[in-house]
Design brief:
single chain, 333 residues, mainly beta, Methylamine Dehydrogenase, Chain H, 29 strands
């Protein structure tokens, strides 16, 4: 099946360039599902969770150059450039792996709460957070030693999280409660809980550190822009169906939403109080997770071909990928 890329320009704003198009398809293959992608911009590497491993891609050559093995049910990957370490959230074994980024070998495993999903590195504290979906908790451990320093009970099922080093705060979407929780990175305590109405079912989360804005991708087809200092929902824009990933490019002042219906929504932060959709790129069904390289402004999406849905199957059922068809789509200007 051939997929065509088109751009729908919804508005014209000085300085905003929505003209993203497909540059490359990187064949990965293999079996199993996937979740998050993470770009290490300085090292020119892309880390892609896939089944029970993490695939490593050289973004200069668009070639698979290695893998991190034995990460059962891996969801996410976080990078600590200062330590030359990576950290994976292994959902099926309730552990996080500590990885040597030079050798791609596992150095240690850390026990977390049940089904660790999102994961981030809080550079100011040199700590790693896993956000445990079934455990409804966050596990915090020292990035150097792997020692668990805190377990934070959360009010519901956590999704993506971001870190503000200047404020010393971690923000996390609580998907089933329609809330954002704010965690003090020093005390490991929740200091605020903010409703996201009119948003529902928040997954993707990104941050504009300069203007103190959170971008929240919601399953009721909205992207919210929230003030990260007080929780006020500043504005909202429409996005596609089945969002998972959200990203922000501070150089272009542009937020992105990757949607499972095969669209990439592009929104321009015209001012800290104004967010405008400037384009919708047609991608491919299932391309719901993403990463952005802020040096090259390339966007990476993961998807595959799928089995034909069973007649009468729920529209919310996740389709089964066909073996050998997993790939990365590369978009750029």
């Amino acid at each position: 099946m051939v997929f065509f890329v088109s751009i729908l320009l919804l508005t014209s704003i000085a300085g905003a360039d929505p003209t993203y198009h497909l540059l490359k398809e990187i064949a990965v293959g293999g079996e199993g599902g996937w979740d998050c992608l993470v770009s290490d911009d300085a090292a020119h590497r892309l880390y892609v969770s896939h089944g029970s491993k993490i695939v490593v891609i050289d973004t200069g050559t668009n070639a698979v150059v290695g893998e991190i093995a034995d990460t059962p049910g891996v969801h996410g990957f976080a990078i600590a450039p200062d330590l030359q370490r990576g950290f994976s959230s292994n959902g099926r074994e309730a552990k996080a792996s500590i990885i040597d980024l030079k050798t791609l070998k596992t150095l240690a495993r850390v026990t977390t709460g049940e089904n660790p999903d999102a994961i981030l590195y809080a550079s100011g504290e040199h700590e790693v957070y896993t956000f445990n979906g079934k455990g409804q908790s966050a596990t915090v451990f020292d990035a150097s030693t792997g020692k668990v320093v805190a377990t934070i009970a959360l009010p519901g099922k956590p999704e993506f999280a971001v870190y503000d080093p200047a404020a010393g705060l971690v923000f996390d979407n609580i998907e089933d409660k329609n809330e954002v929780v704010v965690i003090d990175a020093k005390t490991h305590r929740i200091v605020n809980t903010w409703p996201i109405a009119p948003g529902e079912g928040a997954t993707g989360l990104a941050i504009d550190l300069e203007h103190h804005r959170l971008f929240i991708g919601c399953h009721n087809r909205l992207m919210l822009m929230m003030d990260s200092t007080n929780g006020r929902v500043v504005t909202k824009v429409p996005i596609g169906e089945a969002v998972d990933g959200t990203a922000f490019d501070p150089g272009a002042q542009t937020a992105f939403s990757s949607n499972g219906d095969g669209t990439l929504t592009i929104a321009y932060e015209d001012t800290p109080d104004k967010l405008v959709v400037i384009g919708v790129v047609l991608t491919q069904k299932g391309a719901r997770t993403m990463a952005i390289d802020l040096h090259t402004q390339k966007i990476y999406l993961a998807t595959a071909q799928f089995e034909t849905p069973v007649e009468g199957e729920s529209m919310f059922a996740r389709p089964t990928p066909l073996p050998g068809t997993f790939k990365i789509l590369v978009y750029g200007k």
